Amino acid sequence: MSSTERTFPEGFLWGAATAAYQIEGAAREGGRGPSIWDTFSRVPGAVADAHNGDVACDHYHRSAEDVELMKSLNLQAYRFSTSWSRCMPDGVTPNLEGIRFYSTLVDQLLQAGITPWLTLYHWDLPQALEDKGGWTNRDTAYRFAEYAAVMHEALGDRVRIWTTLNEPWCAAFLGYAAGVHAPGRQEPTAALAAAHHLLLAHGLATQELRRRDGDATLGITLNLTVPDPLDPSSEDDRDAARRIDGQFNRIFLDPVLRGSYPEDVLRDVEHLGLTDSIRKGDLEIIGTPIDVLGVNYYHGEAVTKTPSDEAAPQEGHAPVERPVSSPYVAASGVRSVPRGLPVTAMDWEVQPDGLRRLLNRLQDEYTGPAGIPIYITENGAAYDDVPDGSGFVDDQDRLAFFDVHLRAMKDAIDDGVDLRGYLAWSLLDNFEWAWGYHQRFGLVRVDYGTQERTPKASALWYARVAASNALPSALPSAASSTDGGSAGVVLSR
After folding, report:
1. Are the beta carbons of 134 and 194 closer than 8 angstroms?
2. SS3 of 304, please?
3. Distance from C-alpha of 479 to C-alpha of 408, rounded to nearest angstrom
4. Disulfide-capable partner of 221 in 22, 161, 294, 297 (CB 3.0 to 4.6 Å)?
5. Which of 243, 249, 307, 250 is CA-nearest to residue 269?
6. How big, in percent rounded to 5, are the helix, strand and coil portions of the chain?
7. The pLDDT value given to residue 475
């Protein structure tokens, strides 16, 4: 990695992100109703060791403490999601007590000088709506727009940045095709219907929020990958990369930023009925102009159609007992192949150059022509953290992960990419979906037995980066990384 100090543009936004189901707990308090994740986590074999989010990080009762923690780490922005199940337990009727929790959280953030960045949907659909078909039911998109209106009525006077959906690829294809995520269905046709209705929900909610507040900053967050053909000279491998790019990236990028589905994707999935879900006017709604694109990046992948003698593992999937399927509904025989790169505890390759390439591509093909900036709304890594006697984790591997990705990000800015902020994933160790509590992404360690929070070495380093708006010339030594330093980090260990 480079040892040169790198200064970011003035006003660059530094923050961290979380999601409601992963941290809040209080699953049966304050009038909250069950979500699809409450239901799915109780399906035998669906989540590692039958873990669930009933308690999680107990953020519902500890939001004031967590906001003070954010302030001590010099975070300028906090991206959180509101739980549809807490705010509208049946999907349609407002629950004032649940909404009040987020109103209080927003006030706490503003009092701490932290910008609240609200995501309306991070996968916790009310079970009452799933019982009516969930995202395969077109009506859910309209209920989502009503939910957006309710939340804006309550918070719009103080929240200025709104994200409609987080990672609709996961909600649609991991949830309805692979069965890896809630609601756990394995129906390719349903997954494509869900993808379209999620996009429609985004467009309808964007229109509703825009109607209510023309000055709000509105966007969507997409998780994106960089698929490379394992053998660039192989026509089959090039087609494999095209299919993954189409069914992961372009199936969402093109409707949102170009107002149409890619023709090759439509051909690939023609037999699965996507066009049956598309009605006149839908793409105009989906293509409603946005102000920012949120990008979640974890890794790229090398893909091939070459058969293997070994059974292909479901890359990055939790070791669960319940059988799962491929999320790629029209990429039969395509598999990812390790390239010998370092990997995280999730077996995800560490590939910072993929982030630079992705950002340049977006600038050239999507966000640049649309005239909108990019924010990294998630980037981070799970590692096998080992705390010392005081609970402190000297996570040099995670610290190095952040360093190389931030340097790649600065390279992209120098290339001309309009990138304006970075929100690390995640503020806290938390419930990691089908992995349960077995994977830790947090800047801050959570002792799930006591709920004690302890910033890791990566958090102290990141606090200094946020305070200085610059990457240091070299990584800290393990000895110095435990020092709170001069970046305003206040710790009680």
Report:
1. yes
2. strand
3. 26
4. 294
5. 243
6. 40, 15, 45
7. 78
Residue 10 and residue 462 in contact, taking contact as beta carbons nearer than 8 Å: no
State the pLDDT at residue 491: 38
In this prediction the pTM is 0.96
Buried b (16+ CB within 10 A) or exposed e, 299-335: bbbbbbbeeeeeeeebebbbebeeebbbbbbbbeebb
DSSP characters over 382-446? -----B-TTS-B--HHHHHHHHHHHHHHHHHHHHT--EEEEEEE-SB----GGGTTS----SEEE
Residue that is written with structure tokens 């992209």 in the block = 412
C-alpha–C-alpha distance, residues 361 and 224, integer Å: 11
Given this model, what pLDDT does residue 490 score?
A: 35
Which positions of the chain have pLDDT values less than 70? 1-3, 309-316, 477-493
pLDDT of residue 488: 39
Across 56-76, b (16+ Cβ under 10 Å) vs e yields bbbbbebbeebbebbbbbbbb
Within 8 A by CB and 6+ apart from 245, the residues are 225, 227
Rounded to whole angstroms, the Cα distance separating 228 from 240 reads 9
Q: What whole-number distance in Å separates Cα of residue 455 and Cα of residue 53?
A: 22
- Torsions phi, psi for 348 (to 5 deg): -90, 135
Q: Determine contact, residues 223/378, Cβ cutoff 8 Å.
A: yes
Dist CA 482 CA 493 (whole Å) = 11
196 touches 274 (CB < 8 A) = yes
Per the listing, tokens 């039911």 go with 137
CA atoms of 62 and 379, how far apart (whole Å): 24
What lies within 8 Å, CB to CB, of 490 at 6+ separation is: 72, 484
In what helix (H) or strand (E) does residue 221 lie, and over which residues does it extend? Answer: strand 217-223
3-state secondary structure of 138: coil
Catalytic residues: 378
Phi-psi region of 133 (alpha: psi -120 to 50; beta: other; left: phi over 0): left
Residue 293 β-bridge partners: 220, 374
How many other C-beta atoms can be found within 10 angstroms of the C-beta atom of residue 213?
A: 16
